[in-house]
Amino acid sequence: MHAHFERHVYHRHSHDTYSFGVTEAGAQSFTCRGSAHTSAAGMVMAFNPDDPHDGHAANPLGFTYRIVHIGPELLADVLSDVAGHRAGLPLFPEPVVADARLASALRALHASLLGGGATTLRRDELLTSAIAATVRRAATAPPRAAEPSGSAPVARRARLLLQDRLLDDLSIDDLAVATGASRYAVYRAFRAQYGLSPSDFQRQLRLRAARELIARGEPIGEVAARTGFADQSHLTRWFTRCFGLTPGAYRRAAG
């Protein structure tokens, strides 16, 4: 995405990808991992998969930014060819990074993906160099596997149920039965592990499914019905709040 926002407010959400943004003008404020952050012009935003965050303009003039989403599998594939990289996926500890060279690399990659006459080979080169630079300059080493906390297995079982029964009208009691925990324990564990409530995460899964169908050219009204939304306006409202553009605009961009 390459966009300018003045009044749009992103609803709290996360992505199943790594997300790297560059603020080009103005400033964007957001919360992530329990803290408030501001990305001003020239700064880089780096989100790990499933990092919940929101976002809005820091002042009435708004902000302009570019952002690219890179799947963990693609990022791992690129890093496998980078000399000296430790095995495993990296972790970005800070959501905002002030690094002009990194911002330049990401801008070049983003511009090539939007067109601009870059060949496929050139886009691949820019992807490799941008990922390598981002990991080298902003990431920590892959975290060591840790013993899961007592609440982590509960949260994971609840997440699997939400993924497996995407369109079902699940209740908190359904999650409690599936995890063997109390209703409050499920809610608390899920929020602690993923930063979203189970209902917010369920909606996000449905939005991701809708996004895939819209990109394939499916009628938006049918997509709404197939992904658990009440109607097309319901889908449009949430799609815009979480992705920053309407389903119709996304379909035109994806096409």
Automatic annotation (TrEMBL):
One of its GO terms (molecular function) is sequence-specific DNA binding. Pfam families: AraC_binding (PF02311), HTH_18 (PF12833). Residues 156-253 form the HTH araC/xylS-type domain. InterPro entries: AraC-bd, AraC_XylS_family_regulators, Homeodomain-like_sf, HTH-like, HTH_AraC, HTH_AraC-typ_CS. Keywords: Activator, DNA-binding, Transcription, Transcription regulation. SMART domains: HTH_ARAC (SM00342). This is AraC-type DNA-binding protein.
